[in-house]
Amino acid sequence: LSRFLCSSSPEESKSRPSMLRHLTTKLKATGPITVAEYMREVLTNPVTGYYVRNNMLGPDGDFITSPEISQIFGELLGVWIISEWMGAGRPKQLQLVELGPGKGSLAGDVLRVLSQLRSVLGEASVSLHLVEVSPALSLLQAQNLTRSCSQEADSEDEPVYRRGETAAGLPVSWYRRLDDVPAGFSIFVAHEFFDALPIHKFQRTQKGWREVMVDIDPDKPDKLRFVVAPSPTLASSTLVQADERRDHVEVCAEGGVIVQQLSKRITEEGGAALIADYGHDGTKTDTFRGFKGHQLHDVLSSPGSADLTADVDFSYLRRMAGGGVACLGPVSQRTFLKNMGIDTRMQVLLRSCVDPTTRKQLISSYDMLTNPIKMGERFHFFSLLHHSRLAKPKKTEGLKLDKKKSPAPLPVAGFTELSIS
Ligand code: SAH
């Protein structure tokens, strides 16, 4: 996650040791665990997981993200969603699915744009579907999106664990897993979601690829350390590419599975996915890091007190998406937002804003999002699309079409510069 500011609130540090105790007990019983298992436990353990506590995002938390920096970010993503819905031929039903919605700010900004452009959407029925593991964050999302008009499911086994309705009357449903979201034409959005998914780490050794594991430090029983597995693990034999040239690689198998699911849904039901995160194209090695109070934090010390993250490998996601969908990007956040018209939107906002403090704030958040040395070049946008979206229009035999009216595929907003004519 983008860890730029904020400090942990003092009350948060009280219940810390329990995650370490939980992990050392586990390690004593089972021996070393994979980095993926460590990351999964630390971030999403239902009792002590980092994301299960709710105040990591924003001024009182550990980090801040683009949707929290400026409403323009979510608004432009709202425009992207409408543009893809139009590009798909304006289907009657539009499921908006967000993976890892945090505080729900992005979804809120998207919904505002959708309601402003209601006339464009016509009769289409819109619903919001949120995939969120953290019950605490789901409550926060419900407060922000449904004015607390939401209800928890009676049983823990229900695929929809919470339901609500927005002020405009749109249904909102919460799920723990993407698998539980119903089929249907959907636009998926994942902002700073994939970087939070567990990664496996592998080291090239003289004996071949070996998995990096987490173990108890034999000299300090309350400290953890990395070890290299002496023999191959299931993951080290299956997840490293045969032609891999790096000496150290990180593979987010769970992210790969989610992209496969997205790809299958888009192929079968139509729609698109927009994935925004920091990452690389299969070139980086060790990117696993922790963030606490917007400072770098040792990934193995006081687990559960800091966010853990790894850069997203877009080349891996592209490979896992397979041939069933078209992939666009990654393009830098700066390029994407500029293509989406952030400069015009800024001018409109500045023109109608006289208060000098608000103007200053608008300009500084614009700078944060687009400046190459801030978030502009570190974050990337990547998209999965139904093949029909990029297909050349078929020539209609025997029909004399007016050239100007012949259907041309709409450009994909954000990835190509939009020319407004
Ligand atoms: N998209 C938001 C929040 C990013 S934080 C923003 O940009 O501000 C990561 C989000 O993903 C949190 O909401 C976290 O609870 C959720 N999350 C993390 N791991 C998850 C998983 N395995 N399944 C579903 N949600 C997950």
TrEMBL record:
<comment type="similarity">
    <text>Belongs to the NDUFAF7 family.</text>
</comment>
<dbReference type="Pfam" id="PF02636">
    <property type="entry name" value="Methyltransf_28"/>
</dbReference>
<keyword id="KW-0809">Transit peptide</keyword>
<comment type="function">
    <text>Arginine methyltransferase involved in the assembly or stability of mitochondrial NADH:ubiquinone oxidoreductase complex (complex I). Acts by mediating symmetric dimethylation of 'Arg-118' of NDUFS2 after it assembles into the complex I, stabilizing the early intermediate complex.</text>
</comment>
<dbReference type="InterPro" id="IPR029063">
    <property type="entry name" value="SAM-dependent_MTases_sf"/>
</dbReference>
<dbReference type="GO" id="GO:0032259">
    <property type="term" value="P:methylation"/>
</dbReference>
<protein>
    <recommendedName>
        <fullName>Protein arginine methyltransferase NDUFAF7</fullName>
        <ecNumber>2.1.1.320</ecNumber>
    </recommendedName>
</protein>
<keyword id="KW-0489">Methyltransferase</keyword>
<dbReference type="GO" id="GO:0032981">
    <property type="term" value="P:mitochondrial respiratory chain complex I assembly"/>
</dbReference>
<dbReference type="GO" id="GO:0005739">
    <property type="term" value="C:mitochondrion"/>
</dbReference>
<dbReference type="InterPro" id="IPR038375">
    <property type="entry name" value="NDUFAF7_sf"/>
</dbReference>
<keyword id="KW-0808">Transferase</keyword>
<dbReference type="InterPro" id="IPR003788">
    <property type="entry name" value="NDUFAF7"/>
</dbReference>
<keyword id="KW-0496">Mitochondrion</keyword>
<dbReference type="GO" id="GO:0035243">
    <property type="term" value="F:protein-arginine omega-N symmetric methyltransferase activity"/>
</dbReference>
